[in-house]
Amino acid sequence: MSITIRIATRDDITHIAQWNSAMAWETERKVLEPAVITRGVTAVFDEPRRGFYLVAERAGEPAGCLLITYEWSDWRAGDFWWIQSVYVVESARREGVFRQLYEDAKQRAKQSGAVGLRLYVETENERAQRTYTGLGMKRCHYFMYEAEF
């Protein structure tokens, strides 16, 4: 089945919010507040400096998405593009949807002058780690820390 990738529009907000909620549950058993996640997704469309979503369609139906955000690197004098909020609907998994999303993001990043792509992955998600390695990404030597407010 053919997979096409496009920039998300406001018409995709409901799907993206639902997919983010599903991903949070699947990966962390975390329940997201629907109003908050919808507000968070909408904010990306309201402020383009925050990033953008790509949506994958399979046979004309939405099948997954990812979010691109930016991190300035003073060491490289350019932006890293962060891949976040990756989700592929269950019926489309293992069919190349993420690969197409990744390749599209990589091409756009190169064309925009970005210095690289980054993402983070759950430490236990070995399947995703194998996927990222298979796409040519390398595991970094950094640990991620956070302080939530």
UniProtKB/TrEMBL annotation:
State whether keyword Transferase applies.
Answer: yes
- Region forming the signal peptide: none
**Keyword entries, A-Z:** Acyltransferase, Transferase
Q: Where is the N-acetyltransferase domain?
A: 3-149
Its source organism is: Dyella kyungheensis
| InterPro entries noted in UniProt | Acyl_CoA_acyltransferase, Bact_Acetyltransf, GNAT_dom
The record's section on Gene3D superfamilies has:
3.40.630.30
- Source domain of life is Bacteria
**PROSITE patterns from the entry?**
GNAT
Database matches in CDD domains: NAT_SF
| Designated name of the protein | GNAT family N-acetyltransferase
Provide an example Pfam family for this protein: Acetyltransf_1
PANTHER family given for it? AMINOALKYLPHOSPHONATE N-ACETYLTRANSFERASE-RELATED-RELATED
